[in-house]
Amino acid sequence: MKPQRFSPAGVALILGLAFLYLPLAVVIGYSFNASKLVTVWTGFSTRWYGELLADSQLMAAARNSLVVALVSATLAVVLGTAAGIVFARFGKFRGRTALAGMIAAPLVLPDVIAGISLLLLFVAAEQTFAWMPGRGLFTVIIAHAGFTMAYVAVIVQARLKGMEREIEEAAADLGARPGAVFLHITLPMLKPALIAGWLLAFVLSLDDLVIASFVAGPQSTTLPMVVFSSIRLGVSPKINALATLIIVGTLVLLAAAAWIGRGALKMKTPRL
Amino acid sequence: MIGTAWHRRIVLALPWLWTGLFFLLPFAFVLKISFSEAALSVPPYSDFFAYAGGAIVGLKANLANYQLLLSDALYVKAYLSSVKIGAIATFITLLLGYPMAYAIARAAPQRRNVFLVLVMLPFWTSFLIRIYAWMGLLRPTGLINSALLSLGVIDEPLLLLNTPFAVYLGIVYAYLPFMVLPLYARLEKLDPALLEAAADLGAKPWRAFLGVTLPLSRPGILAGCLLVFIPAVGEFVIPELLGGPNTLMIGKVLWSEFFSNRDWPMASALTVVLLVLLVAPIMLLQARREDAP
User: What does the angle CA A182 – CA A186 – CA A187 come to, to the nearest 5 degrees?
Assistant: First the structure.
């Protein structure tokens, strides 16, 4: 089969990609609009970016979101790596299917379910152990690590499966103890997957609205929560500016993730 | 092999402990609280156990929430309408995603990854922002209406935002990458020799597609549809921001029971039923994952 230049499928691909990108391009374009009326173009301006930086409520929420994303991504990498190793290297063990299901489920489970169930757990823990009174950023961190670890596990598992085992085996044959083999051989070989996984977990955590709305404490509003309450009132040029910063920021992070994890981030796997 | 029995146990314990504590246990609490009553206390639900002299003497569990859930038309309608919206949106996503995945799989090998990255990138940029972008386009004074007005196609702005149409559009837009990826993975593996054989035997291209390509890509279709359908049924942000007051979806109902009515037990019962509804599709997806190499 020769690839046709103008096959119906090819046209669908072009249209589909346009459909995916045009709305984002419009938001970015209008963020530089001088007018307060979002759809009337009156000239180029960076006024809204200035107002954005002066909004102390937004900036505080952005700080919260960054803290949550940094810590939860790190936690997710530790947990996801353990899970990835278990599935790639431990063969069959009792409960494998159940564990795989529980780790993968948050990838598709509606956010409202994850949000409410984790909140009820935190409330019960608070009652029983007087733990985390009032909830805070800590609860958001745990919730985010829980659903982002699944992505890390998928990437680490794919990387481990694609890795040659000979080097690890050679080190073991030469007398290296399992801990040393892991530290000096496996971990360095996993590094691209770990960095890529961390960046993806970071981006996903920054993005979450629903789960954070349930589990965050009153003092720990995150950026998507502020954006959401503002969007509900309508479209605003300031949010366009923020959206642009978020889109550009994630693109930069993802480019980094893709570049660092070239081998690890095989897009082939449909097991999102 | 990584690790001796000792190392192995620690590595294995980590994911088990975590999922047990933060995945299984939370569901136990949802189930428990779904049997209690809303109360004006902190937290806002009645106690599950009856106490006497510091000892648990009985259960105060009741089925009132579930009875209300089944008898009140609003809840039943919300579930049915969520499943309907999810299913129709999934089908539209398939109609758009299939040719896209097909075109990527048939593209020159060096271009395939570029296309895949292009399809995936929007998924990684903020979900909220992507839905927000459509709010700006669909508004009565938005870009689509102003363009149509100035072209003279329409005389007054079309009502696009806060309609069922906008909800379908939002779901298709947000979940399209989930559909394309598994379809592509399947179509890419398809041996072109099979199509050549079909052509040699006299099959027209569309006949070969229906007889060979489509049946062989069925696992990809199933995976893609499940990946879109499951989260779409419980969607909150899309119906809230793009839908109108008449757009009934269970995610929205659950949210307002919880945050506006502060009826945590009812919200828990709604969650339990939603989970029961989604267990079969999730298991189906999981079984497919295990089959894949």
Answer: 85
Q: What is the ipTM of this complex?
A: 0.87
What's the total number of domains in chain A? Answer: 2
Burial pattern B95-107, b for ≥16 Cβ within 10 A else e, equals ebbbbbbbbbbbb
Min Cα distance A234 → chain B (Å) is: 8
pLDDT in tens, chain A (272 residues): 444 456 888 899 999 999 999 999 988 888 887 777 666 677 787 878 888 888 888 899 999 999 999 999 999 999 999 999 998 888 888 888 889 888 888 888 999 999 999 999 998 888 877 655 667 888 999 999 999 999 999 889 988 888 878 888 888 888 888 888 888 888 888 988 898 899 889 999 999 999 999 999 888 899 999 999 988 887 778 888 999 998 888 888 877 777 776 654 444 443 43
pTM comes to 0.88
How would CATH label the architecture of B72-291? Orthogonal Bundle (1.10)
Query: Is residue A250 within 8 Å of residue B126, measured between CB atoms?
Result: yes
Q: What is the CATH number of the domain that holds A120?
A: 1.10.3720.10
CB contacts, 8 Å: B274 with chain A: 110, 112-113
Chain B residues near residue A37 by CB distance under 8 angstroms: 141
Which of chain A's residues have a Cβ under 8 Å away from the Cβ of B136?
23, 26-27, 30, 38-39, 235, 240
Q: Identify the H or E element spanning A271.
A: none
Which of A27, A108, A213 lies closest to B231 in CB terms? A108
